[in-house]
Amino acid sequence: MTAFERRLLVRRDELEWLYMELYDDREGLEALEEMMAGLYAQRGLGLRRLDNRREQDPHWFRRGDMLGMTMYTDLFAGSLAGLEKKLDYLAQQGITYLHLMPLLKMPHPDNDGGYAVEDFGQVDPSLGTNQDLVRLTAAMRRRGMSLCLDFVINHTADTHRWAMRAKAGEQKYIDRYICFDTPDIPREMEKTIPDVFPETAPGSFIWQPEMKKYVCSSFHPYQWDLNYKNPVVFHEMAAALLRLANLGVEVLRIDAVPYLWKELGTTCRNLPQVHTIMRMLRLITETVCPGVILKGEVVMAPKELAPYFGTAEKPECHILYNSSTMATQWSALASGDIRQLKRQLDDLHSLPDHCCFVNYLRCHDDIGWGLNEAYGKELGQDPVEHKKYLYTFFEGSFPGSYARGERYNYDPKTQDARSCGTTASLCGIEKGLYEGDEAQVAMGIRRDLMMHAAVMAMAGFPMLSSGDEIGQLNGYGYHDDPDRREDSRNLHRTPFSWDNAALRDRPGTVQQRLWDGLEQLERLRAAQPAFGPGARVTTWDTHDPHILALVRRGAGAPLVCLFNFTGEPRTAWLDAMEGTFTDLITGEKGPCSRRELAPYQYCFLLGEE
Asked: Residue 302: is its pLDDT beyond 70?
């Protein structure tokens, strides 16, 4: 019995039950299994060995030395071949997980940052070839790095061959999309479907004149939503996922997961069929390529996240983005009040043990202010006014703000907006440098490192945004580019500065201070048992609404992590934290029950066993 047959044997009954429940197509199920067997046969020997190792170590992605980074290939190194030559730079930081922004064949210039995919099986020629990708993933595995790629499962570009054949009138390709002859049903559906981009792409349907049909397009008009009620779509997309895995991709970021199933009279978000699809994808990957994990992009309220992990017995995604905590953490920095952040973390800590998050400060996207409004009201916040405060603060227009950023996707009806900018610029480093004020720069660096330290202390594993390690600033040149100026996310989608990276070894530079500070945190995290796979994380009351406390308990002594979110000296009072603790940042020893913190100071206090 082959490894594939062994794995399928224990999963086939559930896969059959789910598939038949959704599609009621016995021949389709047989075709699906045949496709899985064929792609397993094409899986390289090295990847099969990786599968075998990870079957024995299923929690490999929860290790304390896991450190991620996200980047655009072209902005960092020009191409995949260029990136391969820069792997030593990433290894110097201890990167074990590299998320490259979408790099599959896409139309130009309208591709939504690569999320309009023209061919799921081919690298975009501007970045290289499939063979370049294979060489890169092999070189990464030799260095202990895993590659993560986006898998845009919800839609294709309107220049994808399926869409082109649909435009030509071929019914079997029209059936791969969600299409209607008249506007009646689309108008009804748009009454209950929230707009993704209300300012730049309102509505969820477009009129396609070549087909003379209304086509579902949740994101941009050139991105057509796939029809997962058609089993052919599920087959084709599952096969595309497995082919990427066979190129050496070890983490598939499943894009826009909640949107996969559409039903009249609903929000077309988070429907039960979405979970059937994700559970089937989990069963398929566990059978064909168990060395691969699925990361879900679920930008929803915290209470809506847990279902995307599935259950311990029937899991779906291995990991999810922790986008809610990202927003709440920046809110805490702007307000100096950590109470909402503490509640957010308490909610996440209450989830079952199989739930695991990727924590980050910044990514390729904006900061959406999806805060817990009910709890905000308990704190005396007006939700609309607080959001307005946040996006004006982080664009630098609020009096006294140190941040430099820009608004994104402003909705005049709701007065909602999102925020853009690099971590360094949002933390005040840009303003200090522009004004030639070293005191401001130093305070900005303290904010920057404190925010990263908090991310590294949270349950899950941290992911850096490329350039944060050297304090990359906003890039305003996109305003002069007619193809990019309408999207303010381009503010932080800027070419990596290798000249600035070279300054990381020069004492006193912004680059050296950030690089060394992050390196200290990364080494600390990798060395301490409290960051191991079985560690438990809780918040702790500091009796000060400006200081966040996280307590990690692993195989050894407890680790108490403190973070002052203000520019003022504060004192943390920690009940029941008796004994002597060692500050792993400064090396000082002392009690933990009362701790004074300087502005934006962070402490990692290790107790005695």
From this structure: no
Looking at residue 364, its amino acid is: H
Q: Residues of 465-490 as b/e, b for ≥16 C-beta within 10 angstroms?
A: bbbbbbbbbbbeebeeeeebeebbbb
* Long-range Cβ contacts of 367-370 (<8 Å, 24+ apart): 367/326, 367/327, 367/330, 367/394, 367/418, 367/419, 367/420, 368/299, 368/323, 368/327, 368/418, 369/327, 369/331, 369/416, 369/417, 369/418, 369/419, 370/299, 370/300, 370/301, 370/323, 370/324, 370/327
Question: Percent of the chain scored above 90 by pLDDT?
Answer: 85
DSSP characters over 364-388: SS-B-----HHHHHHTT--HHHHHH
Residues 6+ apart with CB under 8 A from 288: 4, 7, 36, 39, 40, 43, 242, 245
Q: C-alpha dihedral over 349, 352, 355, 361, to 10 degrees? A: -10
The DSSP secondary-structure symbol of 256 reads T
Nearest by Cα to 84 from 76, 70, 66: 76
Q: Mean pLDDT across the chain, nearest whole number?
A: 94
Helix orientation angle between 383-394 and 323-335, rounded to the nearest 10 degrees: 80
The mean pLDDT of 126-137, rounded to a whole number, is: 98
For residues 320 and 305, is the Cβ–Cβ distance under 8 A? yes
Contact 595, 605 (CB under 8 A): yes
Q: What is the pLDDT of residues 516-539, one digit of tens each?
A: 999 999 999 999 999 988 889 999
- Say what the pLDDT of residue 411 is: 82
Side-chain half-sphere exposure of 62, counting CA atoms within 13 A:
21
Mean of pLDDT values over 295-299 = 87
Mapped onto helix, strand or coil, the DSSP state of residue 246 is helix
Check residue 336 and report its DSSP letter.
S
pLDDT digits (tens, 9 = 90+) for 423-460: 999 999 999 999 999 999 999 999 999 999 999 999 99
Token readout for 302 is 């915290």
d(CA 469, CA 472): 8
DSSP letter for each residue of 39-67: HHHTS-HHHHHHHHHHHH-TTGGGSTT--
DSSP single-letter state for residue 177: B
CA distance linking residue 443 with residue 433, whole number of Å: 11
Is pLDDT at 110 greater than 80 in this prediction?
Answer: yes
Question: In this structure, what DSSP letter does residue 476 have?
Answer: G
What amino acid occupies position 341? Answer: L
Block residue for tokens 């004020």 = 437
Burial 431-458 (b: 16+ CB within 10 A, else e): bbbeeeeeebbebbbbbbbbbbbbbbbb
Residues β-bridged to residue 146: 97
Which residues are tagged catalytic?
A: 255, 297
- Tens digits of residue pLDDT in 354-400: 999 999 999 998 999 988 888 889 989 999 999 999 999 999 999 99
Q: What count of other Cβ atoms lies within 10 Å of the Cβ of residue 113? A: 16
Alpha-carbon gap, residue 335 to 325, rounded angstroms: 15
- Provide mean pLDDT across the span 56-66: 92
Phi-psi region of 210 (alpha: psi -120 to 50; beta: other; left: phi over 0): alpha
Q: What is the pLDDT of residues 21-38, one digit of tens each?
A: 999 999 999 999 999 999
Question: Which amino acid, one-letter code, is at 210?
Answer: E
For residue 463, what are the β-bridge partners? 68, 360
Is the pLDDT score of 305 beyond 90? no
Residue 387 φ then ψ, to 5°: -60, -40
